[in-house]
Amino acid sequence: MEEEWLNTLHADSRDRFVAKRYMDDLLVFYAAGAGWNEERFLKDLCNECYLPPLKLEDGGDGTFLETSYRITKSNRIRHWLKNENAIGQPPKTWRYAHYNSYTTFAQKRATLMACLKKVHTMASDATALKTSATQKLAEFSRLQYPRKLLWTACTTMGVTSRDPTWFRTREQIPYAYSV
Q: How far is CA 148 from CA 7, 134, 136, 178, in A?
């Protein structure tokens, strides 16, 4: 359906947007401007590519799947791992076991490292990485993961990724976060 619809678009319209699909999710960036009706473009996209029972739903500003993003003043896309459990606010979702749970230490450590690897992979730059990593470490700290374990995890990430941001981030790990 998308290919058929794309074939009907004028070349000028094709130059005004870029889209990426992941399974049934679609991310579209488009340039608004005089001489181009972006509202009609979006309506046509929905009507031609999402025939019932399919429907396109807004995923929210600055979010696509597990990624948060922002377009900078220089028209670059900064991205990082979405985190609904921001520092200083009550947690919205519980994804990980409390440190004092009956889960084995090996599983707790593996979960922590997998999360930090995902944080690293999904960050577009050092600033996004440090912010995202700090938030994720705060989330584990609220679950009473020991500071030494978090510090060691950052060291491991720094050594394996060769990214010095992890060494700067580990120095910012507080001794305790309030719940």
A: 57, 15, 15, 18
101-117, pLDDT tens digit by residue? 999 999 999 999 999 99
Of residues 35 and 125, the one with the higher pLDDT is: 125
- The answer to whether 123 and 67 are in contact (CB under 8 A) is no
What's the CA gap between 97 and 72, in Å, rounded?
36
CB 143 within 8 A of CB 98: yes
Q: Where are the domains of the chain?
A: 2-49, 63-170
Residue showing tokens 């060291």: 155
Tokens of residue 176, six digits: 């305790």
* Helix segments in 35-179, DSSP class H: 38-49, 105-122, 126-142, 147-161, 165-170
| Whether the predicted pLDDT of 161 surpasses 50 | yes
pLDDT digit string, tens, across residues 32-91: 878 888 888 888 888 877 778 877 777 778 888 888 888 889 888 888 888 776 656 666
Residue 57 CA to residue 67 CA, distance in Å, equals 16
Fill in the DSSP letter of residue 77: E
List Cα–Cα distances, 165 to 3, 82, 83, 131, 154, in angstroms.
Answer: 42, 19, 19, 10, 9
